[in-house]
Amino acid sequence: MNHFNAAHARVFPQHGLSLGLMTPVAAHGLADVAEAQRIARLADDLGFAALWTRDVPLMVPQGPDATASALDDPFLWLALLAGATTRIAVGTAAIVLPLRHPLHVAKSALSLDRISGGRFVLGLGSGDRPEEFAAFGEDLEGRAATFRERWSLLRAALAPDETGRARVRDATGGFDVLPAAQARIPMLVVGTARQSLQWIAREAEGWATYHREEAAQEGRIGLWQQAQGAGEAKPFVQSMLLDLQADPQAPAEALPLGLKVGRDGLQAYLQRVHGQGVAHVMFNLVDNGRPVDEVLREIASVGDRLGGHGV
Fold first, then answer.
1. In 132-277, beta strands by DSSP E
2. Which residues pair with 259 in a beta bridge?
3. Neighbouring C-beta atoms of residue 79, cutoff 10 Å
């Protein structure tokens, strides 16, 4: 059954490149709720396709500066943003499935999709922090198999058709999680989740991965397209750290997992990667001192020039 919710068409248009934002946008520590809602409304008004957030169960120090991310529960956070907006999709990138029971994830996903009016995209990953696996009593080395097992039950719990629902009732002694959704919630694999591309192409609605140097990313896209075979093409999603400079002609400089660049260079870059097969780019904005509103309007203007759906 390929009847997807409203988010699918908005984030993955048949033609054009859509743009999204990782949230909280350029926040330090826990984000200010009122400011996050205001930014979400602005992104909605500017035509961005999606607002994304990560699943960070514990504040484990990570990265070269050994800082610890402090993020609210992803489902509650996205419900807040969905309530502040009307059209923009909300998505997870990504829920750490081996650390969550699939029926709990299903309950949250179905609830958020209903509350948002079908604007939810569910991205899922396998996780990589040993401290979290130890704290939750899960097997780090076995997370690939755990991911597949939990994906299967979660997929069934989200299914609008009776076949999937029957499997859930078999697993629960005859009980549903919630009434069946009216349409399918798109499920993405974020990273590889330690799965083969063939498995991802068969099981997921799309694949989201990190920014890479263009030639390397083009190779990854080629492998993704090859893994799908002759079937219907599924979207390739790229996350990207973006330090957007005030000078529109500032040349591109490589950053870990992204770019420092001006508006003109960003437009040229997005044109190239879309030509390679990227369907959606989610920006993780660097706080470089520029007002957030100014940066969002400039990105939206790039989207307008590209003529893509979503921005």
1. 187-190, 206-209, 236-244, 253-255, 258-261
2. 242, 254
3. 18
Phi first, then psi: give them for residue 266, nearest 5 degrees.
Answer: -65, -45
In terms of DSSP bridges, do strands 253-255 and 236-244 run parallel, antiparallel, or are they unpaired?
A: unpaired
- Residue-by-residue pLDDT tens, the chain, 311 positions: 459 999 999 999 988 899 999 999 988 889 999 999 999 999 999 999 999 999 999 999 987 666 788 999 999 999 999 999 999 999 999 999 999 999 999 999 999 999 999 999 999 999 999 999 999 999 999 999 999 999 999 999 999 988 888 999 999 999 999 998 889 999 999 999 999 999 999 999 999 999 999 999 999 999 999 999 987 899 999 999 999 999 999 999 999 999 999 999 999 999 999 999 999 999 999 999 999 999 999 999 999 988 754 44
Q: How many CB atoms lie within 10 A of CB 282?
A: 26
DSSP string, 132-169: HHHHTT--STTHHHHHHHHHHHHHHHH-SSHHHHHHHH
CA 151 remoteness from chain centre: 16
**HSE-up of residue 286 (Cα within 13 Å, Cβ side):** 15
Look at strands 120-125 and 89-96 and give their pairing. parallel
Tokens linked to 95: 């829920």
The closest alpha carbon to 89, from 184, 206, 158, 10, belongs to 10
Beta bridge partners of 258: 241, 255
Contact 146, 127 (CB under 8 A): no
> Using alpha carbons only, how large is the chain's radius of gyration in Å?
19
Helices (H), the chain: 6-11, 33-46, 74-83, 102-115, 130-135, 143-158, 162-172, 197-203, 214-228, 263-276, 292-306
The pTM of the whole model exceeds 0.90: yes
User: Kind of pairing, strands 206-209 and 236-244?
Assistant: parallel
* DSSP code per residue over 108-134: HHHHHHHHTTS-EEEEEE----HHHHH
